[in-house]
């Protein structure tokens, strides 16, 4: 059941509740259609947010990107903030 909870919702499959598994007594455990739709909307929104972040970071100057990593007011962190650059790493954050 935990494994099935880790799968992202299918944005195009709302015909029936999503079956997650069965309990020890055989009862079917499922997630209602409305919940799956909400989760799919959140995942889509996060994807859009990550795209906007990438568009913002690319043209941003190095000093500002260094301040993004900085925890204290002084001094500035010496290395700039960087987005994940490996395709595998990006897939971890996204549903694609």
Could you explain the architecture of this structure?
The protein has 4 helices and 2 strands. It is mainly alpha-helical and 96 residues long. The protein has one domain.
Index terms:
single chain; 96 residues; mainly alpha; 47% helix; elongated
Overall geometry comes to: elongated
Number of domains: 1
Q: Alpha-carbon distance between the termini?
A: 22 Å
% residues in beta strands: 5-15%
Radius of gyration: 20 Å
Q: Which class best fits the helix and strand makeup?
A: mainly alpha
What is the spatial order of strands in the main beta sheet? Answer: 1-2
How many β-strand runs?
2
Helix count equals 4
Average predicted confidence as pLDDT: 79
Note poorly predicted spans: none
Q: Helicity range of the residues?
A: 40-55%
Largest sheet: 2 strands, antiparallel
Order of helices and strands: HEEHHH
